[in-house]
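Suppose a colleague, Dr. K., hands you the sequence of a protein chain of 144 amino acids and asks what its three-dimensional shape might be. Before reaching for any lab equipment, you can write down a predicted structure in token form. Begin with the sequence itself:
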Amino acid sequence: MVTSQNGIDLIKRFEGLVLTAYSDPATGGEPWTIGYGHIEDVKPGDKISEQEAEEFLKDDLKQFESEVSSLVNVSINQNQFDALVSFAFNLGSNALKGSTLLKRLNEGNFRAAAGQFTRWVYANNKFMKGLYNRRRAERDLFIS
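The predicted structure, expressed as tokens, is then:
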């Protein structure tokens, strides 16, 4: 499966497009980020074009699509896949791998899995409204 335009739009909406490298707001430092949440080989002062941001996103999505596909052991629909890719894109595949969300999903308990999205709304033990909004959007996509 690959991420649909609906899933890409969700990721873009919450990541935002920034063409100059910036430090992670959750950590106040590493990793440096550019484009739509791209972190690989980004250094302070880096600048890219909108086209480069699109290419980075396409490449980054391939990694998360592959990882989500390998972690999920049950049949899911496109919206569920897109929501999981967005989740992994934002938090990393290791967060998904060790999550109760994935455990419930792989048990076939889709309702319980959906209920796990909004547990992932903290950064440095601090509630983040932006993460809450993203997790709600992912959950809503997952159950639609």
